[in-house]
Design brief:
The protein contains 12 helices and 8 strands. It is an alpha/beta fold. The chain has an 8-stranded parallel sheet. The N and C termini lie far apart (about 40 Å). Bound molecules: 3-hydroxy-3-methylglutaryl-coenzyme A and magnesium ion. 3-hydroxy-3-methylglutaryl-coenzyme A (HMG) binds next to helix 4, helix 5 and strand 5. The site of 3-hydroxy-3-methylglutaryl-coenzyme A (HMG) has 27 residues, from helix 4, helix 5 and strand 5.
Length: about 300
């Protein structure tokens, strides 16, 4: 398959990137992060989670973040919702896109959302219906699509099964997520080759964590399977509270460097993202994990 002319990059730093931070990140910093990202050209920003604050305390200020940002027309601000209570919070906060999140691994489903895969789908049904009734976009995220921290291997058919269930719920977009960053390009192609048989290729996305340094290679492998939507986190922020040892998402700067090098349009200003990576890394006292970001900063100095 030939490479696409353009791709959509979904910036997940404000949510996936920050959710694992031990120290509470001030709401004002989260708001500034989101606003600077929309200013850099991102059209879809995962902004908040409406989950139990006992489970993920860092995301407890989702409503305040959503209320504080300067909405840029045409930008989709997404919110994670595990159940109807979360949906109500996201609706009240005027989220543009509702994200239901399940797993292809039973063990991870239990650890992350305290229920089986089948129970999670039953819980998502009323959320999906309500989102559709209110004219909101609906996205489904499939965790552990390339491996699970608790059960190890995850069968491709298990991923296909959850994708099918999310498709039945009416998802507009479905994320294939390598939660713990164990996937390799060969495995990535196998999974996308299978799921594109049950859900339209152009509405599937790749969500890669970079634990084993394979994320950029996995994104290239996904491009070869015709995938055109990718998630990334500025400065490579992140980690999952329920996936011990997993590092951050692939760094947005690295993905932009890859895409622009391939002549693929993103609509995003890399120089601005590099500056945002420095801003958020210094704000939370972390080393900037983006290789491209660090290289471009060194060159500028
Ligand atoms: P539970 O304990 O089984 O739920 O948790 P419950 O219904 O018994 O409720 C327990 C308490 O939480 C109650 O409060 C509820 O009111 C409250 P209490 O009566 O004890 O005071 N509660 C809520 N509060 C606020 N918002 C809500 C909500 N729901 C219940 N929506 C539950 C089940 C799903 C709530 C919990 O397990 C949870 O919140 N899990 C979220 C875990 C999470 O956010 N994980 C990270 C996101 S997923 C991810 O990062 C992966 C992804 O990036 C893709 C990838 O890389 O794989 C997307
Ligand atoms: Mg993730």
């Amino acid at each position: 398959m030939s490479l696409p002319r353009a791709v959509k990059i979904v910036e997940v730093g404000p949510r996936d990137g920050l959710q694992n931070e031990k120290e509470f990140v001030p709401t004002a910093v989260k708001v500034e992060l989101v606003d600077r990202l929309s200013g850099a050209g991102f059209k879809n920003i995962e902004t908040a989670s409406f989950v139990s604050p006992k489970w993920v305390p860092q995301m407890a200020d989702g409503a305040e973040v959503m209320a504080g940002i300067a909405r840029k027309p045409g930008t989709i601000y997404s919110a994670l919702t595990p159940n109807l209570k979360g949906y109500e919070g996201a609706l009240a906060a005027h989220a543009d896109e509702i994200v239901i999140f399940g797993a292809a691994s039973e063990a991870f489903s239990q650890k992350n959302i305290n229920c089986s895969i089948a129970e999670s789908i039953a819980r998502f049904e009323p959320v999906a219906r309500a989102a559709k009734d209110n004219g909101l976009r609906l996205r489904g995220s499939v965790s552990c699509a390339l491996g699970c921290p608790y059960q190890g291997d995850v069968a491709v058919l298990a991923v296909v099964d959850v994708v099918q269930r999310f498709a039945d719920l009416g998802c507009d977009e479905i994320d294939i997520a390598d939660t713990i960053g164990v996937g390799t390009p060969k495995h990535t192609r196998e999974v996308f080759s299978a799921v594109t048989k049950v859900f339209p290729r152009e509405r599937l996305s790749g969500h890669f964590h970079d634990t084993y340094g394979q994320a950029v290679a996995n994104i290239y492998a996904s491009l070869l399977e015709g995938i055109e939507i990718f998630h990334a986190s500025v400065a490579g922020l992140g980690g999952c509270p329920y996936a011990v040892g997993a590092t951050g998402n692939v760094a947005t700067e690295d993905v932009l460097y890859l895409m622009h090098g391939l002549g693929i349009e993103t609509g995003i200003d890399l120089a601005q993202v590099v500056a945002i990576g420095e801003f958020i890394s210094s704000s939370i006292g972390r080393t900037n994990a983006s290789r491209a970001g660090r290289a471009l900063l060194a060159k500028a100095r």
